Amino acid sequence: MKNHFYLLSVATLLFIGCSNQSSLSEKELEASTMARDSTHRADDSKTKTIASATEIMARKQVPVLCYHHIKEVVGKNSAGYDVTIARFKEQMKALADSGYKTVTPDQLYNYLAYGGSLPEKPVMITYDDTDEEQFTIAKPEMDKYGFKGVYFIMTISIGRPRYMTKEQIKQLSDEGHVIASHTWDHSRVDRYTTEHTIDEGGRKKVVNDWDQQLVKTKTKLEELVGKPVEYFAYPFGIWSQNGLPEIEQRGYKMAFQLATQRDSLQPLYTVRRVIVAPSWSGSGMLRAMQSSFH
Q1: d(C-alpha 64, C-alpha 133), whole Å
Q2: Contact partners, residue 103, CB within 8 Å, separation at least 6
Q3: Burial call 124-137: b when 16+ CB within 10 Å, e when fewer
Q4: How far apart are CA 243 and CA 235, in angstroms?
Q5: 223, CA 20 to 30 Å: which among 148, 174, 183, 282?
């Protein structure tokens, strides 16, 4: 009788213990499942084969917008790189009202390289040159619509007057925007050399432009945001075919030009963007996107 009572008590305690563990650890189990699924996805990506250049070229292009300066008034000497604050707000609203969803470079890369899925109406919003208004004006406007941007940072400008600070760049990254490289000092990529000598304080120093402009910048940005920096935008949109392997070898997965024809052999390193024109209304920008990307 005592043995029967003892076994019954043990069984009851085990049942209660299992029930409590199940209810108390539901979130932990969910987190564990998500972590396991994430690991499986990471393992799967290692075994995937990147699509051929022909396959990538055949995929429908995703509209990629490029902004520089966002100002109250656009001057006559803006050279087409400026938009007014009012125009910018109109353009963001037009995207949202038309059902566009912003995508990150990771999403675009997964789509181009592996045929991954995208929203029905994807768009990428990018900013060049580290201008402060890209944080103070552009970010709050994007926040209204849940948009995320890609910020191509020219590292020589960080913290200078009219440019973003380290803290602002870090905040952008922490909030889900993407920080990417735009070289150290905006030098044209087609003029880089692997070795040349400069005079630095009376001392001769051998410099590799590719390492100076791409590697050091990449390292600095990664230290700043605590995340990998794997995407690059060419200053002035100018690229050279000889330079594409140099960029790939330095750890970049994808590079963005402006509106010229893509390289048919290296389309991941010549992704097209369009500069948003000062004269474009919201509807005008939508029409330009539809005609430029197909």
Answers
A1: 20
A2: 62, 118, 119, 122, 123, 124
A3: bbbbbbbbbbbbeb
A4: 13
A5: 148
pLDDT tens profile 169-193: 999 999 999 999 999 999 999 999 9
Pick the CATH number of 25-292 from 3.20.20.370, 3.30.870.10, 3.10.20.740, 3.40.50.2300: 3.20.20.370
Contacts with 9 (C-beta within 8 Å, 6 or more apart), sequence order: none
Specify the 3-state DSSP secondary structure of 102: strand
| Residue 66 to residues 42, 126, 144, Cα–Cα distance (Å) | 31, 5, 19
In angstroms, the CA 197 to CA 107 distance is: 40
Domain ranges of the chain: 25-292
Strands of 220-279, DSSP E: 231-233, 254-256, 274-275
Measured between its terminal Cα atoms, the distance across the chain in Å is: 82
Question: Which among 118, 152, 164 is positioned nearest to 257, based on CA atoms?
Answer: 152
Confidence of residue 76 (pLDDT cuts 50, 70, 90): confident
**Partners of 139 in beta bridges:** none
Q: Distance from CA of residue 194 to its chain's centroid?
A: 27
Q: What's the pTM value of the predicted model, to 2 decimals?
A: 0.82
Q: What is the pLDDT of residues 201-215, one digit of tens each?
A: 777 778 899 999 999
Q: Of 179, 237, 235, 176, which Cα lies nearest the Cα of 209? A: 235
Is the pLDDT reported for residue 15 higher than 70? no
Least confident of 28-32, 66-70, 135-139: 28-32
Q: Which residues contact 177 (CB under 8 A, 6 or more apart)?
A: 139, 148, 149, 150, 151
